[in-house]
Structure formats: structure tokens, C-alpha cells
Design a protein that fits this description.
Number of domains: 1
Oligomer: single chain
Number of strands: 0
Number of helices: 2
Largest sheet: none
Radius of gyration: 18 Å
Order of helices and strands: HH
Distance between the termini: 6 Å
């Protein structure tokens, strides 16, 4: 991992933008987790819905990973972190 050798200055606007993106990440991950919990509750109450809910459950982890990857790339770009 290539870390910058000097301080990386961030303007207040850049910090605010990163904060918004972090807030969006938390919100989106919480939404995906809530969908998983809802699907499990529905399966518990209506076992006949297991087939429909399994696809919902299996999609959510990948969506969470995509959200984290997107934010990580933006954060690394802002902090000038490279992958050598």
C-alpha cells in the first residue's frame, strides 16, 4: 500500500463531503441489514416464503461489500493512498 509521504491537506468542503459519504455508507449498510432481518422475520412467521426470501438474503452481503468498496476507494483517493 502506497501511503503519502507528506501531510494530505483536506479543505473543510472535502472533509464535509467525506463525512456525507460515510454517513451514506452507514445508512445504506443499515438498510441492507434491515432487509436481511426483515426477511428472516418473515421466514420465521411464514416458512412457506423461504424460497423468495433466500434470494433477498443472499443479495444483501454483496450489496454491502459494494458499498464499502465504493467508500473505501473514494477515501483512499482523497487521502492519496495507492495500491502498489
Amino acid at each position: 500500500m502506497g501511503l503519502p509521504c507528506q501531510t494530505v491537506p483536506l479543505s473543510p468542503e472535502q472533509v464535509a463531503q467525506l463525512h456525507r459519504k460515510l454517513s451514506d455508507l452507514r445508512h445504506n449498510v443499515n438498510n441492507h441489514l434491515a432487509l436481511m432481518v426483515a426477511a428472516l422475520e418473515l421466514i420465521r412467521r411464514k416458512p412457506e416464503m423461504v424460497d423468495r426470501m433466500v434470494s433477498n438474503l443472499t443479495e444483501q452481503p454483496q450489496k454491502i461489500l459494494e458499498e464499502i468498496k465504493k467508500f473505501s476507494e473514494e477515501l483512499e483517493r482523497a487521502l492519496k493512498i495507492t495500491h502498489d
